[in-house]
Amino acid sequence: MSVNDYFIISIFLFAIAVAGIFINRKNLILILMCVELILLSVNFNFIAFSEIYQDFSGQIFVFFILTVAAAEAAIGLAILITLFRHKKSIYIDDLNELKG
Questions:
Q1: 51 close to 6: Cβ distance less than 8 angstroms
Q2: With the CA atoms of 84, 89, 94 and 99 taken in that order, what torsion angle do they form, in degrees rounded to the nearest 10?
Q3: How many CA atoms lie within 13 A of 42 on its CB side?
Q4: CA separation for the pair 70, 87 (Å, rounded)
Q5: Which of 18, 58, 65, 88 could form a disulfide with 46 if both were Cys (CB 3.0 to 4.6 A apart)?
Q6: How far apart are CA 85 and CA 80, in angstroms?
Q7: What percentage of the chain reaches a pLDDT higher than 70?
Q8: Could you give the domains of the chain?
């Protein structure tokens, strides 16, 4: 696989994620999945640049981003479960009543 293939995959993943966020603004689970895809596309770029410059610091950043993504997914799903228990819905339009 060449470096350009990594960039094409990264652009493709980023475009799918942004389109998913703009097309579906109602379902909280899909928005969290799209954010994870954006982080994955950033990881592909770090890997590609790490391969170009023969430097392992990009791959180290990938591990940090994966750690943050795992924490974000765990916290996001915990909030989602709490909101579902309270509101019986995962749609963002139903969450406007939670304002302070």
A1: yes
A2: 0
A3: 15
A4: 25
A5: 58
A6: 9
A7: 93
A8: 3-98 (1.10.287.3510)
Give the closest residue to 93 by CA, choosing from 46, 24, 33.
24
Q: What's the gap between Cα 91 and its chain centre?
A: 18
Alpha-carbon distance 61 to 35, whole Å?
17
Write the pLDDT tens digit of every residue in 32-60.
Answer: 889 999 999 999 899 888 888 888 888 89
Q: What is the pTM of this model?
A: 0.79
Q: Is 23 exposed, middle or buried (0-12, 13-18, 19+ CB in 10 A)?
A: exposed
**Residue type at position 26:** K
Average pLDDT, integer, range 91-95: 72
